[in-house]
Structures are given as structure tokens and as C-alpha cells.
Write a structure and sequence with these properties.
Elements (H helix, E strand, L loop, with lengths): L6 E2 L3 E4 L6 H9 L13 H18 L3 E6 L5 E10 L8 E8 L8 H15 L4 E7 L3 H9 L3 E6 L13 E7 L2
Parallel strand pairs: 5-6
Antiparallel strand pairs: 1-2, 2-3, 3-4, 4-5, 6-8, 7-8
Length: 178
Amino acid sequence: MSISYLFTSPRLGFRLWQESDLPQFAEMNADEETMRFFDKPLSQEESKAMMDRMNQTYADRGFCYFAVDLLETGEFIGMIGLGWKTFDADFTPCVDIGWRLDKRFWNRGYASEGAERCLEFGESIGVKTIYSLATASNLASIRVMQKIGLSYLKDFDLPDLVRSEELNPCALYYIKFA
């Protein structure tokens, strides 16, 4: 069976979520190291709900955090894409760009490559400004933001992380398209 991608980058294919992604996605989301900059690891049910939300976001808005495969092998490596943020802040509601990769695929340039391609995708569908946020101590994600051309805006406390003092503040980056 050949996979139909919504778009690709040189090494990555971007697609909607399928039921077959759940075992690997749930395993990734349950991993303490992968989830160390999030409120908590996710259960299989929470991972399934996230997949469903992403497909619904795509149906509603034309973008989501996409399931991402290596084109060479077809192997699922995680998610990269655009999200819709509505938490209470002076810059929301907004489109944000984010990524979460299985740790077996870290430090290979996939997050940067995929995020650059998702910025192009966002611009192509008419998004004017894209934000990105990460816990200020998440230096790997901040390096990706800088590498793909986002500019630092400010630090802020993410309301979703109020129970986790060590995760705030978050760094906020952005890019505007002409």
C-alpha cells in the first residue's frame, strides 16, 4: 500500500493520523524523557484523543500537527506541524508550530527540516503569523525555532503549565509573512 502524503520535504512525508499510528505515538507520549518539557506523559487514551483532535483540526482549519514518516523507509517518527492555540494570553488565539519526535530520531535535523516545510505550508495557505513556544529550558526546541528563522518575542507563563513551576516560563518566538 502506498501512502499518500499531503506534502513532503526532502526526507519527510506529512500526512493525517491513522489508527495504525496509535501504538508508536502512545509509546512516544508515555516516555518520560520525550515528555520532560510537558505537564505529564500521556496515556494511550490521551494519545488517541490527540490524534483525533489533530485530524479534526485539519478538517476545520486546513492544518494540524501532522503525522510524519521517513520517506526512505515509511517509518513513523512523530509529529510536526501547525496547531491552533486558544489559552489565555495576549497573543492568542494564534497558529503555532510545534514538533514531537520519537527520541530515536533526535539530533538528525528532522525537526528543523520538517518545521521549515511546515512554515512554507502555513504561508501557502495564507497564515500571516506563526508562533512557537517551549519551556525556556528546552534548549533543543529553542535552537530549532532559531534555525528555522523565528524571532524571540518574550518569556511568558503558559496557563496549561501552572501546576509545573519548573516548566514556566516559556519562550515565545514568531515569524510574520508578507
